[in-house]
């Protein structure tokens, strides 16, 4: 909310300067978003009157003006097209300092000039201006322009939280400042207008709970062509509200002053009774902003016998709008249930000052008073004769008694607040207070919708008591060395980040079709109230989310990506589901960043396998099975086993999904359950042999379908004497090898911890390995 500080100070008498005033508002919870001077700084500019004018002798576009500034008349050369005899102007004297220029005595084409007649632009009040500024004839010649136009003002903008609707008015802010600073508060004139005419409008409120209070009156013989005082228009403009017409300006003025939205109908355009009801399905209205909408059955409206004439709490309709020719108006002031109004404007892409206040809650005690205030201003400045107020009153919101315990107050704040200070604060805020043995019973006023529970009262006390009075203490803790607990999630994250991966955090929700087709979950868990249509299902795998991350990055010219995430997956039904914590990752693009020292190659299966193996020091088994996930390429996928238990999958994305996501290259993905990875088991230590190992190499021919991993497992399980390590170092298929066969070569390292092996011992161990391969895998030793 934006407003003039001078307007605010007309209600609350405080000696604080602008900075100090902003500080106390901030400390009390009213966030000052911006505060700046009204206009640029200038000096020695006064009100002048052009008493005579003649053409410049040597310039067609210049004129020589005699300007009266009170105690004397100055000769000033001016080139403005609107300069003429009889108008009052802003006159910068010799020595004046303007935002862009300093005024000096000068000669203009041979004619002396003792000052300058200024436009709004030259005074720094606007960016553009046509001609010099013309002032009101009521201003005194020679008076300081800043004082005359009330330019020594600050424009303040508050960024209020939704619960502080009581401060969406100048009076509300003034009331708050008076409470904070214990300053005096000037009352608003709620004069009851004398009844000058007998015509009265009948009002029917069909939706009593949606509109607990409705007031309206007819005002006849108004003149909507009158000019409002400068101070009214100025206060509106400084609150960022454009002047429209006297009647509309007055309703906006009362809105800003008191916080009560009002609406004026042209009475001559109304037909029959005023009815407050819900709209019919698809019922149309042409709004004041020239928008045509069709309402729903949940929208509250003001109607007459012709149909809807206003969208209640949001905006009026064109059919009953006030114009310059309007002579009789029906002025409305109402209280609508905030729940009924909330979100209605946004549903039609609208935003109004009225809806902003109604949906947060206005003071229902001010409904009639605001109508009297607006009526007084209209009659004073537009003329007119007020009729009797029609009021329909139903059940208003109750203001319940809240019990505040001093013991709880002091426990929460951590300090002892004196009982008399607590009572004083509540009185300053306008609360009704009664002492009890334990504390106080408090009834909040009608304008404080946000006060409902004991904690709300505690917040009010500390706001006014002062957050700065709560001492800050250095935290004290006794730190001891904690025992190590084996592998933790941080270790898994470090393992991948050290290999160039980035951690991502994605939503647990995914598109239903992706969950079924990519993750193969035929019975997904559906959300009752999804935040978006493409996030309607709980995911059973993280792959879909990571492919979305990949697509997002590719669209932003990121050609190489390594990401991982630790999160929960969900399987089952809404009532009976299982959460599984997994670590999932995706690798795409080149194996190494582009650089000079090595050739660029794309990642392959063995790269992603190496990343997975880096997650644990335990021995992982990778096996091809018949139950390949739908997301994986059937020929480049492996199930991952740890200590005989399946913990996940690693592999290449299926070509159809590469095509579905329009990926230039194929990514590799993995997903593992981390519970097994985090198991803490005692390490088994072995002595490191001081004796040199003996190496032997063998090459055997086996069927093409035989997995090397199964060969290695079989050898290790056989507990061959002296065997330290066996590893594959060569694979060959081609000339000299039968079809559907392959040659695999292994290095064999043998070692003893107590002695150096002799050839016979090493040869015996190799012989046992060869016989094992012949028996279990049909291998033949290759010459």
In words, what does this structure look like?
The protein is α+β, with helices and mostly antiparallel strands and 783 residues long. It has six domains: 2-38 and 154-185, 2-Layer Sandwich (Phenylalanyl-tRNA Synthetase, Chain B, domain 1); 43-148, OB fold (Dihydrolipoamide Acetyltransferase, E2P); 203-393, 3-Layer(bba) Sandwich (Phenylalanyl-tRNA Synthetase, Chain B, domain 3); 402-469, 2-Layer Sandwich (Phenylalanyl-tRNA Synthetase, Chain B, domain 1); 489-677, 2-Layer Sandwich (BirA Bifunctional Protein, domain 2), CATH 3.30.930.10; 694-781, Alpha-Beta Plaits (2-Layer Sandwich), CATH 3.30.70.380. The protein is built from 21 helices and 42 strands. Strands 29-33-34-38-37-36-35 form a seven-stranded mixed sheet. Strands 4, 5, 6, 7, 10 and 11 form a six-stranded antiparallel sheet that branches. A hairpin with a 2-residue loop joins strand 20 and strand 21. Helix 5 crosses helix 6. The radius of gyration is 42 Å and the shape is elongated. GO terms for molecular function: ATP binding; magnesium ion binding; phenylalanine-tRNA ligase activity; tRNA binding.
Strand content: 25-35%
Architecture of the largest domain in CATH? 3-Layer(bba) Sandwich
Order of strands across the widest beta sheet? 29-33-34-38-37-36-35
Estimate percent helicity. 10-25%
CATH T-level fold name of the largest domain: Phenylalanyl-tRNA Synthetase, Chain B, domain 3
CATH classification, class level of the largest domain:
Alpha Beta
Instruction: Summarize model confidence as the mean pLDDT.
Output: 92
- Write down the Rg: 42 Å
In terms of structural class, how would the helical and strand content be classed? alpha+beta
Q: Can you tell me the residue ranges where pLDDT is under 50 for at least 5 consecutive residues?
A: none
CATH superfamily caption of the largest domain: Phenylalanyl-trna Synthetase, Chain B, domain 3
Number of helical regions: 21
Distance between the termini: 91 Å
Number of strands: 42
The major pleated sheet works out as: 7 strands, mixed
Counted up, domains total: 6
Backbone shape = elongated
């Amino acid at each position: 909310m934006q407003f003039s500080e001078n307007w605010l100070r007309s209600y609350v008498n405080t000696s604080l300067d602008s900075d100090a005033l902003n500080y106390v508002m901030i400390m009390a919870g009213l966030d000052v978003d911006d505060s700046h001077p009204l206009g640029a700084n200038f000096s020695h500019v006064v009100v002048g009157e052009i008493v005579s004018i003649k053409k410049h002798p040597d310039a067609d576009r210049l004129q020589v003006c005699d300007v009266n500034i009170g105690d004397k008349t100055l000769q000033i050369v001016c080139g403005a097209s609107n300069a003429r005899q009889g108008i009052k102007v802003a006159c910068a004297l010799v020595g004046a300092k303007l935002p862009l220029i300093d005024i000096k005595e000068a000669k203009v084409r041979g004619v002396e000039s003792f000052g300058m007649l200024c436009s709004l632009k030259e005074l720094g009040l606007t960016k553009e201006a046509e001609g010099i500024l013309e002032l009101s004839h009521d201003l005194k010649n020679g008076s300081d322009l800043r004082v005359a136009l009330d330019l020594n003002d600050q424009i303040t903008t508050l960024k209020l939280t939704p619960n502080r609707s009581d401060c969406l008015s100048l009076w509300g802010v003034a009331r708050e400042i008076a409470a904070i600073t214990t300053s005096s508060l000037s009352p608003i004139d709620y004069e009851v207008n004398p009844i000058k005419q007998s015509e009265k409008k009948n009002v029917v409120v069909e939706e009593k709970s949606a509109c607990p209070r409705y007031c309206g009156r007819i005002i006849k013989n108004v003149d909507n062509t009158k000019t409002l005082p400068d101070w009214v228009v100025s206060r509106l403009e400084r609150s960022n509200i454009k002047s429209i017409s006297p009647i509309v300006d007055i309703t906006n003025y009362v809105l800003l002053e008191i916080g009560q939205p009002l609406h004026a109908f042209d009475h001559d355009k109304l037909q029959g009774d005023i009815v407050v009801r819900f709209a019919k399905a698809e019922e149309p209205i042409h709004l004041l902003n020239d928008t045509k909408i069709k309402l729903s059955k949940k929208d509250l409206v003001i109607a007459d016998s012709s149909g809807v004439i206003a969208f209640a709490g949001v905006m009026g309709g064109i059919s009953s709008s006030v114009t310059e020719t309007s002579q009789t108006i029906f002025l409305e002031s109402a209280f609508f249930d905030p729940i009924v109004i909330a979100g209605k404007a946004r549903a039609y892409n609208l935003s109004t000052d009225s809806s902003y206040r109604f949906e947060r809650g206005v003071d229902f005690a001010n409904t009639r008073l605001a109508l009297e205030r607006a009526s007084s201003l209209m009659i004073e400045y537009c003329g007119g004769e007020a009729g009797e107020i029609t009021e329909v009153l139903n059940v208003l919101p109750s203001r319940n008694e809240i019990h505040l315990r001093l013991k709880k107050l002091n426990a929460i704040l951590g300090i002892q607040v004196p009982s008399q200070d607590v009572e004083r604060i509540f009185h300053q805020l306008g609360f009704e207070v009664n002492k009890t043995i334990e504390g106080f019973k408090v009834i909040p006023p009608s304008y404080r919708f946000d006060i409902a529970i004991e904690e709300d009262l505690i917040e009010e006390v500390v706001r006014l008591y002062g957050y700065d009075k709560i001492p800050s203490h250095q935290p004290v803790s006794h730190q001891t060395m904690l025992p190590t607990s084996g592998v933790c999630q941080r270790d898994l994250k470090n393992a991948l980040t050290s290999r160039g991966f980035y951690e991502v955090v994605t939503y647990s929700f995914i598109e239903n079709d992706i969950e079924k087709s990519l993750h193969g979950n035929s019975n997904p868990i559906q959300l009752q109230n999804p935040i978006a249509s493409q996030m309607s299902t709980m995911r059973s795998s993280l792959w879909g989310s990571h492919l979305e991350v990949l697509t997002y990055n590719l669209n932003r010219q990121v050609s190489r990506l390594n990401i991982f995430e630790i999160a929960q997956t969900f399987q089952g039904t809404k009532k009976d589901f299982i959460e599984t914590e997994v670590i999932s990752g995706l690798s795409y693009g080149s194996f190494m960043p582009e650089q000079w020292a090595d050739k660029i190659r794309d990642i392959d299966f063995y790269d992603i396998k190496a990343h997975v193996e880096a997650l644990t020091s335990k021995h992982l088994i990778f096996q091809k099975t018949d139950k390949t996930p739908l997301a994986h390429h059937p020929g480049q996928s492996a199930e991952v086993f740890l200590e005989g238990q399946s913990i996940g999958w690693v592999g290449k994305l299926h070509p159809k999904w590469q095509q579905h996501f329009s990926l230039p290259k194929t990514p590799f993905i993995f997903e593992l359950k981390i519970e097994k990875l985090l198991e803490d088991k005692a390490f088994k230590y072995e002595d490191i042999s001081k004796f040199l190992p003996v190496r032997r190499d063998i090459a055997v021919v086996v069927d093409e379908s035989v997995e090397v991993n199964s060969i290695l497992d079989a050898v290790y399980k056989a507990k061959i004497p002296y065997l330290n390590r066996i590893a594959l170092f060569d694979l060959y298929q081609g000339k000299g090898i039968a079809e559907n066969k392959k040659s695999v070569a292994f290095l064999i390292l043998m070692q003893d911890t107590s002695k150096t092996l002799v050839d016979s011992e090493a040869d015996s161990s190799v012989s046992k390995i060869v016989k094992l391969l012949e028996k279990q895998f049909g291998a033949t030793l290759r010459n």
